[in-house]
Amino acid sequence: MNFSLDQLKIMDSIIARYPRSRSAVMPLLHYVQALDGYVTPRGIEKISELLNISTAEVTAVSSFYTQYRTEPAGEYHVGVCINTLCAVMGGDEIYKSLEDHLGIKNHETTADGRVSIERIECNAACDYAPVVMVNWEFYDNQTPQSVKDLVDSARAGKPTAPTRGPKTLRTWKQNSEVLAGLSDGLANEGVSAGEASLLGLKIAKGGK
Amino acid sequence: MSKLTPVLSANWDEKDSFTIEGYKRNGGYNAVAKALTMEPDAVIAMIKDSGLRGRGGAGFPTGSKWGFIPQGDNKEHYLVVNADESEPGTCKDMPLLLANPHVLIEGIIIGSYAIRANHAFIYLRGEVVHVFRRVQQAIEDAYKAGLLGKNIGGKGFDLELTLHAGAGAYICGEETALLDSLEGFRGQPRLRPPFPAIAGLYAKPTVVNNVESIASVPAIINNGVEWFQAMGTEKSKGFTLYSLSGHVNNPGQFEAPLGITLRELLELAGGVRTGHKLKFWTPGGSSTPMFTDEHLDIPLDYEGVSAAGSMLGTKALQIFDETTCVIRATLRWCEFYKHESCGKCTPCREGTWWLVQMLQDLEDGKGTEADLTKLLDLCDNIAGRSFCALADGAVAPIISSLKYFRDEYLEHQRNGGCPFDPVASTIFKTVGA
Amino acid sequence: MTPEQALLETQTAVEMITVVIDGFEVTVPKGTLVIRAAEKLGIQIPRFCDHPLLEPAGACRQCLVDIEINGRAFPKPQASCTIPVENNMIVKTQLTSPVAEKAQAGIMEFLLINHPLDCPVCDKGGECPLQNQAMSNGRPESRFEGVKRTFEKPVAISSQVLLDRERCVLCARCTRFSEQIAGDPFITLNERGALQQVGIYEEDPFESYYSGNTVQICPVGALTGTSYRFRARPFDLVSVDSACEHCASGCAMRTDIRRGKTLRRLAGDDASVNEEWNCDKGRWAFKYLTSRERVTSPMIRGEDGELHEASWPEAIAFAAKGLKGKRAGVLVGGRATVEDAYGYSKFARVALGTNDIDFRARPYSEEETAFLSSVALGLKTTYKDIDKADQVVLLGFEPEEESPIVFLRIYKQFRKRALTVISDAPVASRGSVKLNAKSISDIKTISGLTAKSVILVGERLAEKAGALSSAVDLAEKSGAKLAWIPRRAGERGALAAGAIATLLPGGRPVSEASARVDVAAAWSVDSLPTNPGRSTTEILHALTVKNLDAVVVGGVDPLDISNSALSQLLNSFVVSLEITHSSVTAVADVVLPVAAVIEKSGSFQDWQGSTRTFDKAITDSLSRSDVRILSMIADEMGTPINLPTVAATAREIAALGNWDGKKIAFEKTSEAKPVIAEGKLHLTSWRLLLDLGTLQDGEANLAGTARKASARISKSRAEKLGVNEGEFLSISSDLGSLKLPVEISEMADDQIWVPRNSIDSQVIANLGFVSGQVTVVKA
C-alpha cells in the first residue's frame, strides 16, 4: 500500500526542517508510527528512498530507540515507570496489578487492541512518583487502583484525562503525529505546572 | 524568609505562564532586545563573567563553552539544546519547559547570537508529548512575533529554530550521541577529539547546552553579572533548580542558590516521610554516588558534593527512607543502565549484562562475601574503561552502596533473600499509616 | 590551489614524532596511532575493532594503555587505537603497566562472558584473533557464572555470508568496512546495549560485491563464507601467495590448498594495489576448475567424428601435422598469462609464420587496434595517480563492475575529499551513484581537467566510433593522465607480449623493420613475417572463406565475440588448448589440456602494467602451461620456439625488454554518433561483475548475490511504452530478442540499457550485438 500524496507532502515538509535530510529520519519514523501504528516495512522503505540511505541504515536507527515499535501499539499505550524511585514508591505494585488486571505482559496488547503495556524507565516526573505515562502523557501520583480505573476508562473509549496535559487523552497514533512535529493545537490545554513543580515557588512567595 | 530564589520558576503559578503573552507580561524577551544591542563577544564575556556553569551535570562553564567556537571561520555554527532529560531522578527541565518554554527560546536566541549561529535545535526527549506541544507552540509564536526567523528585532540577525523529538534513548543525553542522533544516526557517542566546538553537528562548530543553562541566560542579561554572582558559592554561582523526590512529605522543585544543603531542602519539603528516617539519597541523579544521613549538611554545589565523593549532577535529590532495600535500588538502576547502554563498547555492554545478574543473585541472597569482592573488581574493570561516562554511572550506585551498606549485602546472604517488604516502601502504604 | 590540492601538498612534507613505548623510543610520522607505533617496535597491543584501513572506532576497548604527555598522565587508560602519537609522549602497554594489563584482561573477560567458546566447531578456530588474544592477554579462567546471550544461528545475511551473532564481539569492523570502504551500508549494527547485533534489513540482503572482506576481517567466527563453512581447519591448509585471474585490477591473493584442492582464496596484502581487499568474484569464483568436465588427457577427433583420448606425443604430432605448412591464425583469450601470451605470440610468428593473432575475444575496432598499437603500452598511470587525482573521468568503463579494486580506490578518495568523478555512461550504475558521478554524453564537452586529472578508459570505449580518439585528444590537450583498463586479467600482458597482429613482444611495431630484426635475432630466426596480420573477426572470416586453413584457439568463448563465431570455426583445423570442455573443444580437431592458474606459475600484468607473478599453488599438478605445449608443437613442426618452461619464458621476455624505438603515431578517428531510426532505441550494455562468465561457474552461493537483470529506460519512455516499473519489455533486433523487467532510470529517452551477460540477458547470443538499434515494446 502506498502513502497518499498528502502524506508524502508532509514527509517532504519534515525533511525540509533540517539542513541535511538524514536528520529527518527520527521524525519520519514517528510519522510512520502515526500512520501505521508501528515502524512498518513500507515506512522503512519509503524513508530509505526519501533520504537516500539504505533500508539497513533506517532499521539500524529505528531499532536503537525504544519508542519505535516493531509491532502495533494499543490505541492507549500505558507505560509504568519501574525505574528505582517510582518502583520503590509503588511502580512495581502498579505494574504487577496492571498485568493481572489486563491479563497481558510487557510489550503486549489487549485482544481488543485498546491497551498495550510497557515497563518504562524514568520519565522525568520523579516528584510525582509513582508515574504512569499513557501515550506519553503524564499521569502523576498513581496507585494500583487509579491505573486500573484509567485503563478501564480507556477500554471503554473514555479515557481519564492526563494530570498535566490536554483535556482529552489522544490516541497513541495521534500523539506520534505530534512527535513528528505536526501540531494538534492542544498546547494551551492543561495546567502550567503541577503542584509539586510549584512547591518551592509557593514557599518562597509565602515567605516561609 | 526562605533561602529560595525563584527566577526560572517565578511565574509558573500563572495560568498562562507558558504563552508568549504570559511570558512577555513578566518582562519576557527584554533580554533579547538588550543582547542584540551588544557585541556578540560581549554577550559571551558577560556569561563567562557571571560564572554560570552547565546545569546538565558536568558543570562546565557555559561562557567558556561558547568561547570555544572559532569565529570568522566562514562555517555555519549551531546551538543545540539538550532537552533529553532522562537521568533517573532528574525532573527539572520538563516542568520548566511545560510552564515556561519561552525562557528557553529567549536564551537560545541570545546564545545563538553570541556564538554566531543561525540555526539552533532543541533535542527534546520523545516521551513527553505535552512538553513537545508547549515548546512547539512557543516556537511558532516566537516566529510570529518576529523573534525567530529573518532579521530578528530589526538587528539583522537570522535564526531558525528546529524542535526535534528523541525516541527513547538515555544515551542521547551524552552530547556527542545527541549530535549523532540529531544527524539521523544511532545515538552512540562519538570519538573525541574533535570536540563539538570544532566539529559538532554536521561537522560544524556546535555548542550543546542543557535546558536550564540556556534558560538561565536571559536573567543574567537582564539583571547583570553582579546580581547573579551574589547568589551561590565561590565557584558555583547563581541559582538552580533542586528536585526533591521519593520519601519526603512534599516532593517538588525548589529553586535556590547553589550551596544549599539537603537539610535545608528537606525542611522545605516537609521532611522525610513521617514516621521514617533518611537512609540514602542521590545528590544529582542515579549516576552520582549515593549519600546517607551523614551528608545532610554538605553544600550542594559543584565543589561541595565533589569533595564528599559524589557529583552535583542534575541536582536530582532522590530520597529513600529505611524501608528501601539498597540492593533492590541498586539493581534497578543497574538494569536501567543495561537497558540504556548503547552497545558500542565492551565494558558497558557486557559489564552491565554481568552486573545485573550478580546483583539479582545478591538481592536473592544467593551470593557469598567473595562475590562482593568480585563485584567491586568488575566495577573497577568497567569504571574509566568505557567509551563514555554511562558505564561510570552504572557502577556508581554499586560502589557507593557497598561503601555505606556492605552489611546489608551480607544480611541478604545470611537471610537467604531480601529482608525488606517492598510494600512498606510504597507511597500507598503511608496513606493513613 | 583548491583546498584539496593544498591538502595534498601538505601530505608530502611529513613531520616525524618520537615517542617512548615501554621504554623504547620510536619515531613515526605525525598522525600515527599509538597502537601502530607500538607495532613498529614489535609490541603487539591486543585489539579487535582496530583495523589500519578503517576509521578508528575505539569501541572494543581491548587496546587500553597508560599514556603520559609532557609529564602529565591521563587519569585512566586510553584506547591506543584512537590516540595519535605526540612529542613527549610516554606509553606503557600491558608489558610495563599493571593497570593496562588488568584493564585488558578485564575487557577480554567481558568479551568472553557472552561468547559461546565453541572454538572446536568454529571455522575461525586456529586463526582467530579472539582465541589467540584470549590466550595471550586474557585471564586463565572466567569468573562468569551467569547466563549467556543466545541467538538463533546462523543467519544467512546473503547467500554467501552467514552470521553467528552469539560469536560476535561487536567490533563493527564489518559494518565500518561496508560503509567506509565499499560504500554498501547493507549491514548495520541494530538494536542496542547487550542486544546490539549485526543485521540486515530483512528484504535487502548483504549483496555487496565486496562482502567477502567482512568475513576475512571478522576477528571472530561471527561471519563465515557459506562455501567454506565447516570445510577445513586452518592448520590443515597450505597457503600460497597468488595473483587474481579475474580482472585487471591486479589483486594480490592467497590461495589455501588442502591435499591438492583449493578450499578458499583470500585477499592478499599489497598496499600499492588492493591494500587488503578484493572482490567477491576474486574470493569465491574458483570452482570453475572443477565445475565442468575437466580435460584430463589430450584428445584427437577420429574418423568417426568423435574426440578420443590420445597420448601426448600422438596429439602433439597430430596438431603439428595439421598446422605445418598451413595458413593458420591464433586466437588467444584475455585470460592468458604473460608467459602463455608470449608463447602464442612467438608461436604465430615463428611456427606459423604469420601475424594473424589477436587476444581480443570481444567487440573491438580498428581504432582500438591503432590505440593499442601506439598508445596503450606507453601509459604510465597508476593507482597512486587516482589517490592524488583532482578529477577522475570514466570512459566506457564501470569500475565497480569491470575492475572492482579500481572502484575502491576511487571511492576512497571520494569519501575522503569528495573527489569529482565524471562518467560517459548512458545510465548511472550503482557504482556511479556511489561516486556521485557527473554524467556527460559527449567526451568533447569535458573541460577543466588538469595534469592531476585521470582519465580511465575501458575496453568498451572501442565500441563507440571515435571515442578512443577523443579520449586521447582530451588527455593530450589537458595534460591529464590516461589509463586503459581492460576487463580481463590477461589483456594488458597479452598486448605487451605481442599477441596482436600489429605488435611484436615489448611493444615493437611489426611494421618497423628494425623491430623485426631485433626480435628475429633474439629468437634466432632469419626473419619474421611482414604481412599485415588479421584481427579476431578477420581471422574468423578468413577461416569461413578458406583464406585460412587452421586456427589455434586458447581459452576463448566464441559467444564473447559474436553469435556466429563458433560456426565460423567449423570447417577448419582447430587446435584447442583448454582447461575444461567447452563449445570450442566440441568442434576442435585436437584438444590439449592446459593448467589453470593455481596449477602453474606465471604472471599477469595489471592495468598499470605492473607484473603480478604467482607460483604454482598445487605443486604436484601434472598439467602443463600453454607455453610449454606450444613449444612442443613448434618442436614437432620443426620450427622450435624454445620455451620449455614458464621460467625460461619469463627470462626470455625480460631479456628482450621493451621497444624504445620509434612508435607508430596514433591515427585518430573522428566520432560518429549512432543514428537511431524512428521508433527504435539505442541499446548499450556492459557486463556486471557477477554474471554468466565462465570463470564463475560452479559457485551458486556467489551467483546468489548477482544483481538481477533489468532493462533500464527513462520515465517518459516507460510512459510512452505503457509499462510500469517491474513490468516486462520485449527487446528485439534482426537476430533475436530478450525479455526483461523495466527499471525506470534517469537517462536519455532514446536509450535502453541491459546487462551484457546475465541470466535472461545475454545480448550477443540474444540480440547479436552489444550495442545497437533495437525495437522495444511492452511484453
Description:
The complex is a heterotrimer of chains A (208), B (433) and C (779). With 208 residues, chain A is an alpha+beta fold. Chain A has helices at 5-15, 25-36, 41-51, 55-62, 84-102, 144-155, 172-179, 195-206, and strands at 76-81, 115-120, 132-134, 137-139. A 4-stranded mixed β-sheet of chain A has the order 2-1-3-4. Chain A is globular. The N and C termini of chain A lie far apart (63 Å). With 433 residues, chain B is an alpha/beta fold. Chain B folds into 3 domains: 20-229, NADH-ubiquinone oxidoreductase 51kDa subunit (Rossmann fold); 239-321, Ubiquitin-like (UB roll) (Roll); 326-423, Up-down Bundle (de novo design (two linked rop proteins)). Chain B contains 19 helices and 10 strands. In chain B, the strands form 2 sheets. Chain B has a 5-stranded mixed β-sheet with strand order 3-4-2-1-5. In chain B, strands 7-6-10-8-9 form a 5-stranded mixed β-sheet, with helices on one face. In chain B, a hairpin with an 8-residue loop joins strand 8 (278-282) and strand 9. The longest helix of chain B has 26 residues, at 390-415. The radius of gyration of chain B is 22 Å and the shape is globular. In chain C, the strands form 10 sheets. Chain C has a 7-stranded mixed β-sheet, sandwiched between helices. In chain C, strands 1, 2, 3, 4, 5 and 6 form a 6-stranded mixed β-sheet that branches. With 779 residues, chain C is α/β, with parallel strands linked by helices. The two termini of chain C are 55 Å apart. Chain C is globular and about 85 Å long. Helix content of chain C is 27%, strand content 20%. Chain C is built from 25 helices and 38 strands. Chain A binds chain C through residues 41, 44-45, 48, 53-60, 63-64, and chain C through 184-192, 199-204.
